[in-house]
Structures are given as structure tokens and as C-alpha cells.
Amino acid sequence: MSVHRSAPEGLSSAALAAQAHDVPARDGGLSRLCHLRAPGTSVVLELPSDGLPVVLHWGPGLGELTGDDLEAMFRGVQPHTANSRIYTQTSVSVLPQHSTGWLGRPGLAGSRSGRAWSVQLDQVRHEVSPSGTDGNDRDGAPAVGGGQPVEVRSVAIDEASQLEVVTELQLHPSGVVRLRASVRNLGDPYVVTALEPALPVPPEADELLDMAGRHTLERMPQRRPFAVGAWVRESRGGRPGHDSGTLLCAGRPGFAFRSGRVWGVHLAYSGNQVLYAERTFNGWRLLRAGELLMPGEVVLEHGESYTTPWLTASWGEGLDALSHRFHHLLRSRPQHPRHPRPVLLNTWEAVYFDHDLQRLYELADRAAAVGVERFVLDDGWFRGRRGEHAGLGDWYVDEDVYPDGLHPLVERVRSLGMEFGLWFEPEMVNLDSDLAREHPEWLFDAGHGPGMPSRNQHELDLGQPEAYAYVLERVSALVEEYRIDYVKWDHNRPLIDAGHQPHGEPGLHRHTEALYRMLAELRRRHPALEIESCCGGGGRIDMGILEHTDRVWASDCNDPHDRQTIQRWTSLLLPPEVVGAHIGPPVSHTTARAHGLTYRAGTAMWGHLGIEWDITEASPTELQELAAWVRLHREHRDLLHTGTVVRADLPEPALRVEGVVDEDRQRALYAVTAVDRPLTWPPGRVPLPGLDPERRYHVRPQPPGDDHPGVGYPGKPPWMTHGVILPGRVLDEVGIEAPPLHPDQLVLIRVEGVGEPPG
Ligand code: DGJ
Questions:
Q1: Same domain, residue pair 327 and 366
Q2: 15 alpha carbon to ligand 1 midpoint, in Å?
Q3: Which atom of ligand 1 sits closest to the CA of residue 388?
Q4: Which family does it belong to (predicted)?
């Protein structure tokens, strides 16, 4: 084995370190032990001379460890081998292999016409880069900002199978681990069936959490014991889906937001995928994920390779800490949206398909008057699109509805000082469209025609070069012509029977790659353009799509009661500034439930704020209140969109406390919310977590988020009238009395540091 170390160039965060030490390994070989460090996080790897990396520890920072410490640790964690390494499996790599005695699901599955199906790696080269930097381990405080990751790249060859396998494991300054694998074919054509890297978690991780849901009720959490066997979450509709597992966590039983050590993995990918937690009879617990490949979807010719999406993993003492690391990783990307997120108005729930210029003018006038900064024209503007049955694919402005194109509307919007956004659904086609009539060969077809319709629409195959070129040209030309600031990119059906014409082979992998390419090309051509990933609401929320877009639409449900839960669990992965949250009409079109403005706005406040309501019908009082909410959001969005998201653990399930604390812990905003009727009355104390324990804070209700009919009946707790000054430690450990809230009411609380911060 050779270990190559590159120079520590390009390491902008001095808080990362990689340290390596050689030890004699099992079977007389040589292993290098490698300690990767980020603030609060350590990853200790064994890099064997004959195998891929083995994770010995992934979790809390271990501080400085000498070479002797690493060696002792290695010996200290070795299990007995008895008389069979198959039964005891003393080590399992980040790509577990059948040939090493792994009896679970193999990390690489594939074959060359029935041969080369079991991989045994014989030459392995590990490269650690950069190395030798000085670590600074501040346990519990993840790094903020950019910086290069430390990376271990391992290249292995199976000569007999004529395959090269590469794994890349990175530890980012945020403490997030990213892992991916690739396979390169060195022989005759090789079919990849599955390539799924894995990260182990310790036995204390005995409870699983992931998400479930459906259209308009996405990201509902579900828990279960981490039992022997596999808990498998598959997405086969060409996108993660509304029921996407999103984040698969394993932790100490009962792990909560503020306590209980927990690990979680997410696949940064927007197509078919599988997430699974696997526990074996001999004690291994793995969190794994990969692209879910259809038969024959990836066939490698000689010299070709296939690389998995990034398995993106975090850990924390509680879900909040795990979530902070993901947020920090995303916020440290160069393309992360940094300028203030413009408050937008989206026309969908205001006009649906009924596009009337005068009405849209009126909507735009009112939007500008309440402080909206971006006007987004939703579905219904293009040729033939008078309803759901026709028009998708014909990306030309409808001459009947807009005889002068969109120019008059765009000019009106701009003259009011707002940006202009436009809706597209570029991957979809109605059979009643010129596109489908002229180019049926551009549609997916697995050999039975265009297949089953869903919302009257079918699927365009972006893997068809001509279809790709047409869509790219149309979207780009419209962006150019109207100087569009924002594209809402929708996707309203699962992709099934996605066969690439003329032969019908599976085309989703190629389609997803083409989608990423097109989004990247649009941003290259139009650097100021922002793109939203919408998928009938939250059907395509993942870090893969977020590499190419600026926000996601969390759900088609604007009912604040459901949004409380949808946003809470979406925010586990994504920070609020990339999650769209809109103030809907008084009666939700999804649930028919009615809510006052305080609850609707006080819930939407916590994301990238928008309005999706026919405000031409709003009363003068409602408009005034709406303007106050928009002002409040604009006043606090620097905090809301850069601060640390905190969620309290409360024994009372009817109540929630969530907040955002700024980086200096000088300022915070919280919401105390009743999603149901508390069992006890008065409801008791609630903590305000995340503040500096040593600092005093002024705590008071934040208007207009303090005023519902009934709040204060039969009286308010005194702090709501007079405010209170308390140390952060008291606010977290003792709390304050919860406001008396009816179901679906909330109170916003403003918290500001008093005096100088402690030195
Ligand atoms: C589904 C989206 O999620 C909605 O916001 C809206 O854009 C409709 N599609 C339009 O068809």
C-alpha cells in the first residue's frame, strides 16, 4: 500500500486536520489509521492495504490523539475472531463486499454477463489530502463558513474482475461527512446493478427516524426500533417523491431535538433512489443509500465509469445539532443565496388558470403596496394552457391571452419595483400539445406508448438530445426576452415506464443527469437567474437539486396547521432561506380549514416568505395587517436566514417552541405555537433554547405576532405585558410561562441581549 499525501494547499479553515499512523493489521497486512478532525467531530478510519476504508469512529471530536493513541484505539476496538471471520465480521468497509464475508446487501452489485459479480480488491491506494494541518477541536461548536474538506480517496483494483473501485470520503468544516463511490470497467461491458456506500453507527443507535408523507402532507416523521434486517425506503418515480425518506437517522432511543446522540444520512440526488438502514446478526448497523438503478440502466463500456451521488451524513447530540451541521454545509457553498430573499407573490392560488391582464395588474399593484418584492406568474401563461388538459410542452406565450406577449405585465411589475418570475414545467408534456403531436419520439416510452397519464400529463425525456435542446432554448429565450429573475421549475407527476426511445431502455439516470446539466447551463447563461425546485410541492427536495437551484417549494399545502409540521421536518435538512413558505388565503384550498392572518403569516414567516392568496379580495384591514407582516419579515430576515434554528423538546405534544438565534447569540426570534389543545391548563413553562447561558436577554412579545382573538383569555402571563430580563441559562433551564393559546394560535417572542456580551 502507498499513502500519498498532498500539500496542505487550499485549506482555508485551520480547524481541519488529518493525522495518520501505520499499524500491523489483521492477516499480517499493514493498515494506516487516519484521524480526520473538524470542530466537534472526529472520523477515525482504518485504511487497510488490501481493502477500502473502514470507519472506526464517526461522531464526537476525540481531541488530539497521538499515533500511539490511535494504535491503542485500533486494538481496543477489535472484536475476537473465533474461527470464522464471516461470522464475526471484524471489519466492514464503506463499500461492504460479499467476498470479505459480508452477508448483507453488497455495496457493489453488477456483472459482466453473469461473471465478475463478486468483487475482491487486491491493490488499494489511499490518498489523504490535505494533511498535516493543525487541528483545533472546539467540541460542540461546528465551523461556520467555507473551507476545504479533508478527503480520503481510495483506489482499488480487482484484476480478476477487471474493475477499478474508488471511494471518496470527505469531512467538511461543518462536521458533515460526504461519501461516494465509483466503479470503472477495465474489461468487456459491465452492468452496474447497485453501488451503495455505507456508514456504520454504533450499537447505541437503536432507534430509527425517517420521513413519510404524501402530496400536500410531506415530511411526516416516523420512528421504529433499529431491528435486525433492513428498513428500506425506495423512490421509483424518478424523483425522491412526496413520501421521500429524505433523512434516515439512527440514534439513542428517545433522541430528541436537544438531546440524544443521533446520526443521519441523506442522498444528494433527485432521481430514483434507495435509503436503507441495515442491521446484521453480528452487530453491524449501517446507514446506506444509492441511486436505484433499473435493469440495464447503467452499462459500462471499456474505460467507462459510474459514480454515485454523495451520501451526505451528519451527527449531533440531538437532532438540532445534526441539523446545524447540514445547514452550515449548505450555507458554506459559494452559490448559496446570500442577498436578502425577496418576499414574493405567487399567482397560483389567486387566479389559477384564469389569466386576465387587468386582474393581474390589480394583483401586482396590491402586492407592491404590501411590500412584495418579486411577482411570480404561475401556470397558465403559455399556448393552449387554459386548464390541466393541454399545453405542457408548448413554451410560447399564449397569443390569445397575452396579445402583446408578457411585456405589458412585466413592465407593470417592474414599474412597481418588483422582480418578475415565471412558472415552467419543462420535463412534462400534455398529449394535447404541438410538441407531443410533432415529436412523439421525445416522450418516454418503455414499449407500450406514452403510458398512464397523471394530471393529464406525460413525461418528456431530457435524455433525447433534441428534446433537451428545444427545452433549453425555449426557457433560455424567455428568460432573455423578459429579463426573468426567477424560474419556478415544477414537476407534477411521478415518472413511470421511463423508457428511452427508440428501444425503450430505462432512461431515468440519463434524464436526471440531463436535468442537472440543463439547470447548470441556464445558470451559466443567466448568472443572476434564481430557480425554485417545485415538484407538486415537496416531491423533489434534496441536496442534488439544490446544487442547481436556490430554493425548494416545501408543499402545495399552505394550511398553516399542516405547514407547522411540514416546515419543522423539512428544516431538519434545509435552512429556512431555501424553503418557500407562503401566506395562503383565509380558507386553505387543500384542507378547507380557516385560519386568521396571525397564524398564517406567523407560520410562513420562518421560511423564504411569499403570498399565495387573491389579495384583490382582501379587506383594507387585512391588507394593512399583511403589510405589517411583510415589514416584520423584512426586518428580521437577516436573522431568520442566517441564524441557528432551534426547536425545544416539550412534554406537551400540543405545544411547540421553535426559533432562530443569530450567530453571535445577541438576538433571537421564537414562536410558541399551539397545534392542538394542551392537556393541562394553564399550559406551564416552555424553554427558549440556544441562547448564551452567561448573557442576559430582554424577552417580549413581537407584534403583530402576539394578537389572536382569545390570546390572553383569561389573562396574559405578566412577561407578555411588561417583558422580562433573564439570563440565557434561566430561559433554557427554567423557561417562561407559555402564553394561553387556543389550537392553531401562536405568539412570536423577540429576544435581545442586554448590555455588553460577556468577555
Ligand atoms: C403544482 C405546484 O406545486 C403549484 O404551486 C402550482 O404551480 C401548480 N403545480 C400549477 O400547475
A1: no
A2: 44
A3: 11
A4: Belongs to the glycosyl hydrolase.
Catalytic residue among 490, 497, 732, 744: 490
pLDDT for 88 equals 86
Q: How many domains does the chain have?
A: 3
Note whether 307 and 433 are same-domain residues.
Answer: no
Neighbours of 507 (CB within 10 A): 26
Q: What is the pTM of this model?
A: 0.95
Question: pLDDT tens across 645-687, in order?
Answer: 999 999 999 999 999 999 999 999 999 999 999 999 989 999 9
pLDDT at 617 over 50: yes
Exposure b/e, 648-669, CB count within 10 A at least 16 = b:
bbbeeebbbbbbbbbeebbbbb
Distance of CA 47 to the CA centre of its chain: 31
> φ, ψ for residue 59 (rounded to 5)?
160, -140
Residues 411, 528, single domain; the answer is: yes
Residue whose CA is at the smallest distance from ligand 1 atom 9 = 536
The CATH number of the domain where 137 resides is what? 2.70.98.60
Active-site residue flag, 22: no
Q: Are 597 and 622 in contact (CB under 8 A)?
A: yes
Residue-range definition of the domain harbouring residue 263: 90-331
pLDDT at 30: 83
Query: Using one digit for the tens of pLDDT, what is the confidence trace for 561-586?
Result: 999 999 999 999 999 999 999 999 99
Same domain assignment for residues 574 and 705? no
80 inside domain: no
Q: What is the DSSP string of 235-265?
A: E-SSS--TT----EEEESTT--SSSSEEEEE
Q: Please tell me which residue in 445, 542, 556, 559 is annotated as part of the active site.
A: 556
Clarify whether residues 249 and 193 are in a common domain. yes
294 and 327 both lie in a single domain: yes
Give CA–CA dist 745/523, Å, rounded. Answer: 41
DSSP notation for 394-429: --SB-TTT-TTTTHHHHHHHHHTT-EEEEEE-TTEE
